[in-house]
Predict the 3D structure of the following.
Amino acid sequence: MENFTIDQDIPVWYVAAASFPDGVPAAWAELHGLLPGATGRQFYGISHPDQTGKITYKAGVAASSPEEGRQYGKSGATVRKGLYAGETLQLGPDAGRQIGEAFQRLLKHPDLDPQGYCLEMYLDQGMVRCMVPLVEK
């Protein structure tokens, strides 16, 4: 586990998964279908429990303009600037399990922001950085 800093708020737009975890692949497929050949874009997975404790998941991309998501009829969110605890993983065929286990470890951090979320930042070459925001002291 290591700390990472996101220096500025990042506006994203997303496709919401119909369910978690089963609907996650379809959300990613829809997002990538809207952006064929989108190399050089930063993709994010954002998840958190709703009021009932059910996990909501958003497959997102950093917005290239304030209107981009709206042109596809999609909602927006913000990846908040600040301090995060994280783990960087090389994804294998069991990526869902790998990511889930990383978040189980990260959610035990003593400085976890109780208003936070789980953030996946997709990097090059099959890498993902799993992060959770921390309360800065």
Notes: The chain has a mean pLDDT of 93.
